[in-house]
Specification:
By secondary structure, the protein is α/β, with parallel strands linked by helices. It contains twelve helices and 19 strands. The strands form five sheets. A five-stranded parallel β-sheet has the order 4-3-2-8-19, covered by helices on one side. The longest helix is centred in the C-terminal third of the chain and has 17 residues. It is globular, with a radius of gyration of 24 Å.
Length: 433
């Protein structure tokens, strides 16, 4: 496609997705405009009908694993009225929270905070609009603009022309190879949603939960409490749940300054650092939750009423679903012994992977540089590295762990990253004559 005199208006950016990362970006834009500063123009597109963040895991007692100070604004602008503390003041719980003496709010409460922020910048987002493709617009031999094609819930298509696209694609559930989600086989992302749809008079007799991380442990605890007559089988390949490292020095891996060091490090050093610090975030569990599950498991042994079953050094070797339940075969990795377990439902808490925006880009994806592992090469300003033919900016909020470190998929650097992306876009935006 070539630019003509009848072209539609051009915005500075279009944001794809409106999760916490792009909400943070929208707030940063709003705050700059509120101070009378120049800020890029644009709009955000979200396929959901309203803001939502991991709704299926908003368990009653689940808390955040990150300090409330790492909200959407504080590390960028401590005086912002979009902070978590401002939210608490707005809803009349500030003193109660202070008396609670914790850095880690309930996950439901933090979701409410994020929704409060999203509502306040709702003029920048179009909900119910799914981006279906991104098309190049050429001026001569250069791609100077991008047409973002979106489809609403009624099937109507809209084209938005822009100089930059900021992808906030979020995470997608990871299921074991060959396993598909169904009415009885779930990923933990949909836990509460699926439990709400269970027949009210048909309490499950047994669950199998697969995974060794925080989500898996939370699911085990929740199911064990919610269904007092059900057996809950926890299956993981480790010998036991491993504690997360939340110590002050280890947490430096999430600091904004750590992104600079990680991005400039040689590839072998990047891999080493990721390996060293995986226990800050991956397949690890809060120590208090580990202790609680162990006490529960031990107490049941004492009382002779075992409902919580821990299958360590084990894997799921077979799943056969029927209208009445799921026949699960567990295999002990040490002995090779196989044990059948009859379950009503199987929950895989097997993590997530970042959504890849490249399928949306069509022929534009051919202009992206990649790493030796086939992942997008990403500059320090979160812009995907491209051939000179493409003068537009393609930015990633998430999916940059291989270039920017562990914090890329977490809340830790949302506030600072938002400012860096805006500064990059402004530096690359032509100044009107």
């Amino acid at each position: 496609m070539s630019a003509t005199e009848q072209d539609p208006p051009v915005s500075d950016l279009v944001g794809v997705g409106f999760g916490p990362s792009n909400v943070g970006l929208a707030i940063a834009l709003a705050e700059r405009r509120g101070r009378g500063e120049a800020a890029p123009t644009g709009v955000f597109l979200e396929r959901q009908a309203a803001f939502g963040w991991h709704r299926g895991m908003l368990l009653d007692d689940a808390t955040m694993q990150v300090s409330f100070l790492k909200d959407l604004v504080t590390q960028r602008n401590p005086a912002s009225d979009f902070s978590f503390l401002s939210y608490l003041h707005h809803v009349g719980r500030l003193n109660d929270f202070i008396n609670h003496k914790t850095l880690f709010p309930l996950r439901q409460e933090f979701h409410d905070y994020l929704s409060w922020c999203a509502d306040r910048v709702s003029d920048q987002v179009r909900y119910g609009h799914e981006v279906v493709e991104v098309l190049p617009v050429r001026t001569g031999e250069r791609i100077t603009h991008l047409d973002v094609v979106t489809q609403d819930t009624a099937g109507r298509r809209t084209v938005l022309r822009t100089r930059n696209v900021v992808f906030g694609p979020g995470l997608r559930p990871r299921m074991p190879e060959g396993v598909e989600q169904s009415a009885r086989v779930w990923h933990n992302e949909h836990l509460l949603t699926n439990l709400a749809h269970l027949p009210p008079k048909a309490a499950p007799h047994s669950f199998v939960v697969v995974g060794a991380g925080q989500s898996a442990a939370e699911v085990v605890e929740h199911l064990h409490e919610r269904f007092p007559a059900a057996h809950v089988h926890s299956v993981f390949t480790r010998y036991g749940y491993s504690p997360s490292d939340d110590s002050p020095f280890a947490n430096r891996i999430f600091d904004p300054e750590a992104v600079d060091a990680f991005h400039t490090a040689p590839e072998e050093v990047k891999r080493t650092l990721l390996g060293y610090h995986r226990n800050t975030n991956y397949s690890v569990v809060d120590p208090d939750l580990i202790d609680a599950l162990y006490r529960r498991h031990y107490a049941e042994k004492v009382h002779g009423t075992q409902r919580l079953h821990l299958h360590n050094t084990s894997r799921v070797a077979g799943l056969t679903e029927s209208p009445d339940g799921v026949a699960v075969v567990l295999e002990d990795l040490v002995t090779g012994k196989q044990t059948p377990v009859a379950a009503g439902y199987v929950v895989f808490a097997t993590g997530y992977h970042p959504a890849d925006p490249r399928p949306l880009l069509g022929s534009v994806a051919d202009l992206l540089h990649t790493t030796p592992d086939g992942l997008p090469a990403v500059e320090r300003d979160y812009r995907m590295a491209t051939r000179d033919e493409l003068t537009c900016g393609l930015y990633l909020q998430g999916g940059t762990e291989h270039t920017h470190g562990v914090s890329s998929s977490l809340l830790s650097n949302v506030a600072v990253r938002s400012a860096e992306i805006i500064d990059s876009i402004q530096a690359r935006t032509p100044v009107p004559a």
